[in-house]
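Demo today. Your pick:
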Amino acid sequence: MSDLLYIFIASLIFNSILFKLYISISQKYKIYDIPTSLNSHILPTPTGSGIIILISIIFTMLTMNLLNFHDINSYLPNKYYLFFFCIVCLGIMSFIDDLKSIPPPIRLIIQFTIIFFALPLLEVNDIFFSNIVKLNLITTLYIWVYLINIINFTDGSDGFLATNSLSFFMGTVAFTIITNNINIIFYISLSFIPILLSYLYFNKPQAKIFMGDSGSIIIGFSIAFIFFNLIKLGYWDVALGLLSYTILDCSLTIFNKIRKGHLPWARLFDYYFLIPIMKDKNNQKKVFLLNLVCNSIILFITIFQIFLDLKILFILSFTVSLIFVNIYKRV
C-alpha cells in the first residue's frame, strides 16, 4: 500500500510540473484555443496539453511494467503493446488536430482503423453474442469508436471531462478492490487518477489550460477499454452506471442533431451541460459544481451496487443523470 502512495504522490507532483511547464511552452508558441461566440471560455487559453497526459500515462504504465510492480506483468492483456501503440497513434493524430483541424470524416476513418488494430487486446468472441465472432468484432469496434467520441464531446466546459473521467477511474479502482479482482484495468485507472487530479487543478473554472482532443481521445480510448473489460467480467451494470451521464446526455443530443438534419459531429454546442454556459459564460463554476455533485452521487450508487451485487441499481445512476440533464436545462 505504501508503494501505491509513493507512486501516487510522485505522479501528482511530476504532472503538476509538466502541466505548468506546458502552459509556458504553449504561451511561447501561441498554442491557444481562441474563443468564439459559441465557445464556453472567454480568453485565449493554452490547448493541446493532452500530449502531457499521453506522455505521463505511457511513462507510468511502462515504469510499472519494467519494475513488475505488484506482479503487474501477470495481469497484462494479450498483445498489451497494442494499448500503447494505439494511444500513441490516437494521441499524435489528435494533437495534430488540436494544432490544425483535421476534417471529422478523416478523423473518424483514422479512429476506426486504429481501433480495429486494438481489438486483439480484448477476447471479443463472446463479449456480446455467444460464439458469433464477426458480429462481436463489428459491435465492439462501433461501440468503442462511439464511446471515444461521446467522451470527447463532453470536453466543452471547464473541468467537466476531467471530473467525469476521475469518477469513472475511481469507480473502477473501487470495483477491483471490492470484488478482489485486481487486473490491468486497476493499473490503468490508478495511473490516470493522479494525472487527472493535477490537470484538474489547472482546468477547473476558470481554466488555465485545455487538454484538447489529444487528451480526451486517449482518455476515451482507455475508458472504453475498461468498459469492455467490465462487461467481460459480467459487470455490465457497473460499466453502464459509471458512464451513465455521458451516454445519456450525448446520445440524446446526437439523436436531436440527426432529427434536425445535422451531422452527429456538428459543433452546435447543444449538449445539455452546455446550455447554462451558452446562456451566460459566467455559469462555468455552477456547471462544474453541479457535475461534481452528479458524479459523486453516481460513484456512491455504483460502489453501493457493487457491495450488494444488485445490478438493477444501475438504473438509479441513469435516473440521477436524467435529473441533472433537466437541471442543466433549467439553470
Summary: The mean pLDDT is 91.
